[in-house]
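pasting for ref
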Amino acid sequence: MKTSEVKVRNEFFVSALFIESAMTDYLSEKLNIKDSINSEFLGNHDKALTFSQKTDALLDSIDFSIIDKSKLSVFREIYAEFQKNSSALTLEESFTSPDSNDDFLLILYPQSDYLPREEKLINACYQLIGEVSELVAEHTKKPEVKLHGISRFFNVDKIKIGKFAMMFSFLFVS
């Protein structure tokens, strides 16, 4: 897998951590759970909700538009695909869902016809990361970190990711 493909997958994982943190904080407030870290329902226990279940709970508790629901759902599905297909040789091979999430990404975020498909997918993934991170931060009232000028690495003008993510971005951007 090329370096740019590894970076987008890593950025997806880091963003998912901060999105999950925001969802956990939001759900713990709504459910009046004082200590979400040690909660069997939201914490790091075997019985705790998964990322997918927390996403479903967030989608059920907030009135999102149809397109925003689709973005969150596709983010969740791509995250699961990246985990499942961690040994895929290309980014495109990571997309194995019968829902064709890769095609949805390219419809949602059209790219130049002159770019190779892998590059289009990389750019679309970064756009999805940015929009979902901003969406979750906005609806859960959690702060976000804005990364400006990262376009020299990823061909996007700006990416917004969850709180404190900037501390970890150096691990994936060389």
